[in-house]
Amino acid sequence: MKLTKAEEQLMELIWDRNELFMKDIIDSYPEPKPAVTTLATLLKRMQNKGFVAYNLMGNSRQYYALVKKADYFATHVNNLISDFFGNSPLQFASFFTTETDLTQAELESLKKIIDAQIEKKKL
What is the CATH architecture assignment of 5-65? Predict the structure, then answer.
């Protein structure tokens, strides 16, 4: 399931801080801060989608993530590969390395990551 941009922005806060009360969420936003009702609506939608839950602490709710950030983004990258690259990670990697403006240092770092994965596969 996909989050809207506003939900993703809120989810980033939750992923970064692990557990947040509404006051923490509001304080994390830059000015102009969203209305409490707007945030409450977003959180309710995110609960319904299975992304967040909360613990009741007195009259306050402490929100936490049910979905890991890496899992969420891995799903979207895999969907991107499936939808736009014929389900070929190789085509995606080729496009990514040729059509983005990676520096030599970034390409070398990427090569090290790939080399490390090749070594893991050999074991």
Answer: Orthogonal Bundle (1.10)
